[in-house]
Amino acid sequence: MDTESSQTLPLRAAYEFAFEHGLKDEVEKIRNMEIEWDLSYTSSLRRGYIVDLFQQKGIFEQFVQGHWPNGATKDGQTLVRRYLLLFAT
Q: 3-class secondary structure for 7-41?
């Protein structure tokens, strides 16, 4: 899938971006975390962890500009809020 046209935050691009910014250990924990629930939101939960990590490091906007333009739209911001809500759960 072309990351520039992705509606949802592209996890593979996010992982690569994290590696490029010296966040290998943090992103490996996210990739390999065991999610202890039966819901189908595991990828969205991982996206929430990614958004939180990138925001903490001050690189989320850079990621959006370079890898997820939909994240800057109204729909994209709605997704970001959803990801962070799942993350906070």
A: CCCCHHHHHHHHHHCCCHHHHHHHHHCCCCCCCCC
Whether 54 shows a pLDDT value over 80: the answer reads yes
Total domain count for the chain? 1
Q: Which domain holds residue 81?
A: 3-88
Of 84, 6, 3, which Cα lies nearest the Cα of 45?
A: 84
Q: How far apart are alpha carbons 54 and 50 in whole angstroms?
A: 6
Longest dimension (CA), the chain: 33
Q: How far apart are CA 57 and CA 50, in angstroms?
A: 11
* Global pTM value: 0.87
Q: Is pLDDT at 3 greater than 70 in this prediction?
A: no
